[in-house]
Structure formats: structure tokens, C-alpha cells
Amino acid sequence: MNIKVTESAQDYLAELLAKQEVEGIGIRIFITQPGTPYAETCIAYCKPDEKQEGDIEMPLKAFSAWIEGDSEPYLEEAEVDYATDRFGGQLTIKAPNAKVPRISEDSPLNERINYILITEINPGLAAHGGRVELIEIVDDVAILQFGGGCQGCGMVDLTLKEGIEKTLLERIPELKGVRDVTDHSDTTQAYY
């Protein structure tokens, strides 16, 4: 694992952790929406019972950092640092690979679908205040749910069939179709 936590960051974090007065507390480092333009690198307190299956322990001098297993490849060459300035100091996390896609034809079906939804479909839907997310895959059919301006929109069937389904079937040949499970009777946020 090639993640660097500088001495100054370890000292600063150790001080914060000591104030929590929880035996064995550490930190957890993870990335939300890794491999997409929306990736965010996060550090959170991690009590002993908050470790998650798949987390990788990274022992540091005064505590352990727990690296989320799914985020680990995107944290390659990351650096956590603490620098003082005239306002006190600032903890910074640089993760140059956080937004680099790691999707290939061998990636699991759900990861490939999510990647296309996040990077290609949702930016277009966002123009109307909408979004779509993968709920599950059943018999090679992607079960999707719309939200925001797409929920209750009169154009959702066209968007689903001509936009989303067409794109996903072109890009992922083993996918057999898409299905919408959104309750479109709620039209309070619908884009018309």
C-alpha cells in the first residue's frame, strides 16, 4: 500500500483522536464515487466497532488507519499532510488517482453500469435537476431508480428507452435491458 501519512499529520490526528477518549480509535480513509469526476477523498474517526469488512489496516506510530478495501487502488500515491499557517493549520489529502477510472471489460457488471450512469448519463440528467441510480441487477436486467427532476417527469419513458437503455446496451453487450422502479406518481420536483 503506497499511502503516505506525514509525521505532522500523524501528530495532529493523534491529538484529535486522544480527545475522543475511545480506546483503540483510529481513522478510516475512503473515497466516495472513486474513479469518477465526482470522487471525494475522506478521513473519518473509526472506533474499533466501526471497521468494515474489507478494510485494510495501516499501522501508524500512535494509531491505525483503516483503508476501505474498494478505495485502496484509488489511494495509490495518496498523501495526508498537516501544515501550519497563520490561521492555525490545515489537514490536506492529495489522492492523484482518486478520479482515474479503473473499469475494464473484466470489471463486475454493476461497476460498469454505475460508471456509465455516473460519468455519462447523470451529467445530462443533472441539467434538469435529475439523476438515476442502479438499484440491483436481476437476470442481466438493470433495475434503475430516478430521482430529483426525473421523478414524475412525463419524458422519463423516452429518457429510459432512447437514452439510458440504448447507451447501456451499446456499451455493455451482456446486459439484456433496463427497468424503472421509480414511483412517478410524485410529481412535486418533476422537470417539464
From TrEMBL:
InterPro entries: ATAP_core_dom, Fe/S_biogenesis_protein_NfuA, FSCA_dom_sf, HesB-like_dom_sf, NIF_FeS_clus_asmbl_NifU_C. Binds 1 [4Fe-4S] cluster per subunit. The cluster is presumably bound at the interface of two monomers. Transmembrane segments: none annotated. Residues 1-99 form the Core domain. It comes from the Bacteria. Keywords: 4Fe-4S, Iron, Iron-sulfur, Metal-binding. Its cofactor is [4Fe-4S] cluster. Belongs to the NfuA family. Involved in iron-sulfur cluster biogenesis. Binds a 4Fe-4S cluster, can transfer this cluster to apoproteins, and thereby intervenes in the maturation of Fe/S proteins. Could also act as a scaffold/chaperone for damaged Fe/S proteins. Homodimer. This is Fe/S biogenesis protein NfuA.
